[in-house]
Write a structure and sequence with these properties.
With 537 residues, the protein is mainly alpha-helical. It has helices at 3-25, 41-53, 84-93, 104-127, 130-136, 138-141, 144-149, 160-170, 176-187, 191-207, 209-212, 214-235, 291-306, 311-321, 323-337, 358-363, 372-390, 394-408, 410-421, 448-451, 455-465, 479-494, 513-520; strands at residues 340-343, 346-350, 442-445, 468-469, 502-506, 525-528, 531-535. A five-stranded mixed sheet has the order 4-3-5-7-6, sandwiched between helices. Strands 1-2 form a two-stranded antiparallel sheet. A hairpin with a 2-residue loop joins strand 6 and strand 7 (531-535). InterPro entries: DUF6311, DUF6311_C.
């Protein structure tokens, strides 16, 4: 097929993905200055982390370090889930522009399009049917796992990274350049995506070692490790020395049948009755394949029962896909179950993970996410099998499944659409007394963990006034540095050595009674929004 024809089909897939994006989210979130839809919870962390990062020094190392949000905590754009791949280059492009900017809407549109395109390339490779692949590509833009992450965990919406890894796993050759590029992109988007892609690459190198030579495969793998380490340092993974590991590996696991159950009734009108049987306890355990793929899977099973010869199509599909992709997706799905196996929410057994694996299980504790590769592979296999087994009916069937999927998710999409086009605040404002915080000031607290509860307000004020904030809400935080900063702040106040350019949020119980009396009598003392605030007069 000519280059023009390939481009034509790519454009068609892109158009369909934009339609699905509009149907789910609307277009208002594409406006760069429309940030109000992000001012809540994790979305606010993502946007405010980026907004404070924008005013960090042009020349700094690591490039992703974000002193303005966390200060001594050692934060970076990695730990506010601000997508370093976008945040770091955009900081330099917009450095002299001081207006509000959000890129999340465009990021979601990009993910929607790339999810579709990745699905299109995989299905086309397996079916050699471009028209059919175009139709099926829609399911990767409306995947419930993608849509759910697009409600707040925006970096994790990049499921195209997983899909392209599956595509490369199916390739008979070791596409070294493409693999390394994908790995580096993954590590600059989100650590969990990297954790899904890198093992796939490692397995591919191991399997292809005889074809390319053990020495060459080993060198390629070693080079990738060096590049990954360098990029991780550059974007700010190593800005914290403690706090990476967290408990909860067996709390955020997937159920054995989580791919076939919904989180709430709005996830599927047709299968809403499934919530009476079982409903995942959290978003981390939600891996529903989607109403249309579920129906397509049932349809495929019916074909197999009625036509025993169709099993040959399944065998050919597995052979064409290659064993590596099946192995890695299965291994990740096993990890997603954790050491607490449950079926329909009923615990079968619960074991503590071996101490040897604690560094992995405590870093990647939300294990339920690792079901995604197998979930997508199941969707791919299902629709590929239908194409091989249905002949001329394949395209009409695919269109029917698309209509069913869009119709079934209409209520959920409408809610998402309304949420993203009706902001939490018409304009986020704050008490005028906070104008005591000036450009270049540093806002610190005698109890950063308590004041972290009001992190969003203080982060927004610091961003607006050009200040740095010494506490906040982070995906990971250096607990040792938090405690060290707390001790220094308390010592400054107790010894009457408060610094110019610092704004102190003071808690009476953390300082001596003498220091508290002295501060209250000072001209620099204010009570703002119920918070005791001190700044050298």
């Amino acid at each position: 097929m000519s280059t023009n024809s390939r481009v034509k089909y790519i454009l068609i897939v892109s158009f369909f993905s934009f339609f699905v994006f509009w149907y789910q989210f609307g277009v208002k979130i594409l406006h760069p200055s429309y940030y109000m839809w992000l001012m809540d919870g994790d979305p606010a962390q993502h946007w405010l982390g980026w907004s404070l990062f924008r005013s960090t020094p042009l020349l700094q190392w690591p490039l992703g370090a974000n002193y303005n949000f966390g200060m001594g905590v050692g934060n970076s754009v990695v730990y506010t889930d601000s997508i370093p791949l976008i945040a770091i280059p955009l900081k330099y492009i917009l450095y002299f522009y001081h207006g509000d900017v959000q890129y999340t809407g465009w990021w979601l549109l990009l993910c929607c399009a790339l999810n579709s395109l990745a699905g299109y390339f995989i299905v086309y490779r397996l079916t050699d049917n471009r028209k059919y692949a175009v139709i099926v590509s829609v399911f990767f833009a409306m995947s419930p796992a993608f849509t759910t992450r697009a409600l707040g965990h925006y970096a994790l919406s990049a499921h195209w990274i997983i899909l392209y890894a599956i595509y490369l796993m199916m390739d008979k050759s070791l596409r070294t350049g493409r693999w390394i590029a994908l790995i580096l992109i993954a590590v600059t988007v989100h650590a969990y995506l990297f954790a899904m892609v890198f093992p796939a690459f490692a397995l591919k190198c191991f399997i292809e070692r005889n074809q390319y030579g053990k020495a060459k495969s080993s060198m390629v793998f070693l080079l990738s490790l060096i590049l990954v380490a360098f990029v991780m340092y550059t974007v700010g993974y190593f800005t914290i020395s403690s706090g990476i590991n967290k408990s909860g590996y067996t709390n955020y696991n997937a159920d054995l049948f989580s791919m076939f159950f919904i989180l709430s009734k709005i996830d599927s009108q047709l299968f809403s009755f499934l919530t009476e049987i079982y409903s995942p306890p959290s978003i981390e355990s939600f891996n529903f394949i989607g109403t249309a793929p579920f129906l397509a899977l049932i349809f495929s099973l019916v074909i197999i029962v009625l036509n025993k010869n169709s099993v040959k199509n399944l065998a050919l599909l597995v052979e064409k896909s290659g064993k590596p992709v099946l192995i890695i997706c299965t291994l990740m799905a096993i990890y997603s179950l954790s050491t607490r196996l449950s079926i329909f929410g009923h615990e079968i057994f619960h074991l503590e993970p071996p101490r040897l694996f604690k560094p992995i299980t405590s870093t990647f504790r939300a294990s339920g996410r690792f079901t995604w590769p197998l979930m997508y592979l199941l969707v791919i296999f299902t629709f590929t099998f239908i194409e091989k087994s249905s002949g001329k009916l394949a395209i009409p069937l695919a269109l029917l499944f698309v209509v069913i999927g869009l119709s079934d998710a209409e209520i959920k999409y409408q809610r998402i659409h309304n949420r993203y086009n009706t902001p939490y605040h018409k304009e986020y404002s704050f008490n005028a007394k906070w104008d005591i915080i000036k450009n270049g000031d540093k806002v610190v607290s005698t109890d950063p963990r308590i004041d972290a509860q009001s992190w969003m307000k203080m982060a927004f004020i610091s961003y607006r006034n050009g200040a740095s904030l010494g506490f906040g809400y982070f995906a990971r935080e250096d607990k040792n540095k938090i405690d060290e900063m707390k001790r220094k702040v308390i010592n400054d106040i107790n010894t009457n050595m408060t610094k110019d350019g610092y704004v102190y949020i003071v808690h009476k119980d953390n300082i001596t009674s003498e220091a508290w009396k002295r501060i209250q009598l000072s001209d620099g003392y204010n009570v703002i929004d119920g918070m005791s605030v001190y700044k050298n007069p």
